[in-house]
């Protein structure tokens, strides 16, 4: 029997044996050939995302032997850096446990760095020549261009990639990080630009929420369990709440956040991806295009969000906060423009105009500076018909899928209190991953998505028409907020958000009693 991972290994997300095999499942033995070179090119290698997420992910994949043996990591940015300089940037974010130091040194030796601009043809040709020379020594050369860049350089960078750095000895793939535009018009402009340069099969729009284990489990939960299918409709479901809560403020990065706000930053992308997987019809297969077709179909049946069905909030500092971040209100962040009306909290209601979901409110709620860290979906079922239990004590059943932290699926339900006549209490059927899968280390979202890019599988990536539909839903509301300077409601750092949001939930058939406490970890 394999030894359970140590706490240090769990913290570092070290994947071993069976967990490695599962991630590599479905890859033919000859797909990752020894005589092919795989180049993972990070544009914006000196930036925040690269040093905090991308390089640590590449290290973890290398460490766990999940990459092709002949893989190199090519950093590209304006900064003039040596490999030693680059290492100093990202090494503090890499989880290196005792005994892995030599392996990390070997990982560093697989790195290349080239300084260059994003608008100069000769710099991209220099990058191409470096790759071409290495690829000339092998049978094939495959290139992944990861754009860890601000959106305003997407156009020029992608133009130069296609014209001056496109590989000719194998496949090429381009990975884009959100935001994919600022509204419907800018998103269409970006999509039109990319369409002229690349095929849709070569574009990977990454939303890391689609790499989370419990988000991916939505398809299995819905379509592999007979018990849920008959109840997954407006005959049985009263309302659905999809939530994202963060207990931190902008932490000095308010200038960046203020350009987007909570709707663009979280709801239009992360929460809408969860929405689609929970609401869509059963696809004809698990093929990426069949799944994405169903996501688009359900999005097309949603009317644009409105201010009348929304609550917008902006956090104030908490004078009793434990640190400066908690004591500092959003408008007190020196990087935030004075008088900004950008929401840091939003709750809004969408309706799906189809036979399955007609009349069911879908509530999307996201906020910063709240009382806890949590992301989950709550499917709340209607009250039982002809309730015979005494005292009207029956509470609604609720299926809860918690994506983070402490992944879990549990069904909140009523049961008879032990030794009572017909006393009742709320309890749960509980699948807490840390209990049921003790010793299993879950892959991080970026790990899985990188592997999917290398495989050429787009099931967990956003297609152009999905993007078009989500922007169609939110652009009118976003423009109204900005054009009319709609002032958000104040709420205190560390609270549950504006009280008006609770009223919005109640008006849309979501019943919150506050009487049930989940006994799992991170409650």
From TrEMBL:
Record keywords, A-Z: Carbohydrate metabolism, Glucose metabolism, NADP, Oxidoreductase
PROSITE patterns, per database record: G6P_DEHYDROGENASE (PS00069)
EC numbers, comma separated: 1.1.1.49
Transmembrane segments: none
Lineage of origin: Eukaryota, Metazoa, Ecdysozoa, Tardigrada, Eutardigrada
Region (Disordered): 314-336
GO MF annotation terms: glucose-6-phosphate dehydrogenase activity; NADP binding
GO (cellular component) term, any one: cytosol
InterPro entries assigned: G6P_DH, G6P_DH_AS, G6P_DH_C, G6P_DH_NAD-bd, NAD(P)-bd_dom_sf
First and last residue of the signal peptide: none
Reactions catalysed: D-glucose 6-phosphate + NADP(+) = 6-phospho-D-glucono-1,5-lactone + NADPH + H(+)
Family: Belongs to the glucose-6-phosphate dehydrogenase family.
Pathway this chain belongs to: Carbohydrate degradation; pentose phosphate pathway; D-ribulose 5-phosphate from D-glucose 6-phosphate (oxidative stage): step 1/3
Species for this entry: Hypsibius exemplaris (Freshwater tardigrade)
GO biological process: glucose metabolic process; pentose-phosphate shunt, oxidative branch
Pfam assignment, any one: G6PD_N
Domain of life, per lineage: Eukaryota
Name of the protein: Glucose-6-phosphate 1-dehydrogenase
Glucose-6-phosphate dehydrogenase NAD-binding domain: residues covered: 41-217
Chain's role: Catalyzes the rate-limiting step of the oxidative pentose-phosphate pathway, which represents a route for the dissimilation of carbohydrates besides glycolysis.
Limits of the Glucose-6-phosphate dehydrogenase C-terminal domain: 219-511
HAMAP family reported in the protein's UniProt record: G6PD (MF_00966)
């Amino acid at each position: 029997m394999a030894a359970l991972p140590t706490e240090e290994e769990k913290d570092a997300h070290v994947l071993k044996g069976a967990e490695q095999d599962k991630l590599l499942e479905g890859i033919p033995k000859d797909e990752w050939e020894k005589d092919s070179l795989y180049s993972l090119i990070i544009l914006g290698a000196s930036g925040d995302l690269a040093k905090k997420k991308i390089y640590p992910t590449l290290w973890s994949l290398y460490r766990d032997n999940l990459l092709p043996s002949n893989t190199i990591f090519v950093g590209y940015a304006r900064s003039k850096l040596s490999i030693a300089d680059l290492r100093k940037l990202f090494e503090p974010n890499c989880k290196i446990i005792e005994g892995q130091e030599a392996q990390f040194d070997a990982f560093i030796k697989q790195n290349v760095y080239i300084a260059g601009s994003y608008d100069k043809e000769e710099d991209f040709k220099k990058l191409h020549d470096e790759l071409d020379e290495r690829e000339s020594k092998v049978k094939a050369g495959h290139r992944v261009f990861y754009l860890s860049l601000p959106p305003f350089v997407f156009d020029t960078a992608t133009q130069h990639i296609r014209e001056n750095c496109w590989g000719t000895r194998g496949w090429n793939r381009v990975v884009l990080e959100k935001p994919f535009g600022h509204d419907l018009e800018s998103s269409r402009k970006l999509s039109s630009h990319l369409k002229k340069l690349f095929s849709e099969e070569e574009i990977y729009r990454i939303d890391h929420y689609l790499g989370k284990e419990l988000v991916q489990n939505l398809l299995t939960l819905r379509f592999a369990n007979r018990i849920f299918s008959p109840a997954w409709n407006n005959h049985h479901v009263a309302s659905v709440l999809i939530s994202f809560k963060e207990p931190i403020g902008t932490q000095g990065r308010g200038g960046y956040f203020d350009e987007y706000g909570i709707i663009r930053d979280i709801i239009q992308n992360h929460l809408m991806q969860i929405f689609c997987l929970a609401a869509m019809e059963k696809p004809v297969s698990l093929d990426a295009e069949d799944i994405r077709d169903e996501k688009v179909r359900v999005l097309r049946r949603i009317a644009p969000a409105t201010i009348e069905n929304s609550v917008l909030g902006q956090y104030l500092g908490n004078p009793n906060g434990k640190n400066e971040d908690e004591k500092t209100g959003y408008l007190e962040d020196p990087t935030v423009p004075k008088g900004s009306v950008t929401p840091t909290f939003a709750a809004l209601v969408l309706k799906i105009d189809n036979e399955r979901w007609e009349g069911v409110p879908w509530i999307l709620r996201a906020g910063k500076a709240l009382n806890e860290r949590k992301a989950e979906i709550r499917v709340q079922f209607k009250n039982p018909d002809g309730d015979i239990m005494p005292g009207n004590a029956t509470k609604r059943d609720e299926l809860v899928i918690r994506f983070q932290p402490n992944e879990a699926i549990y069904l909140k339900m009523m049961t008879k209190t032990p030794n009572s006549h017909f006393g009742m209490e709320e309890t749960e059927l509980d699948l807490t991953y840390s209990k049921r899968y003790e010793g299993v280390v879950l892959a991080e979202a970026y790990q899985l998505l990188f592997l999917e890019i290398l495989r050429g599988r787009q099931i967990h990536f956003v297609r152009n028409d999905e993007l078009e539909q989500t922007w169609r839903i939110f652009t009118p509301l976003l423009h109204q907020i900005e054009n009319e300077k709609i002032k958000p409601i104040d709420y205190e750092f560390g609270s549950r958000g504006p009280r008006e949001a609770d009223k919005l939930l109640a008006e849309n058939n979501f019943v919150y009693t506050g009487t049930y406490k989940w006994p799992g970890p991170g409650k």
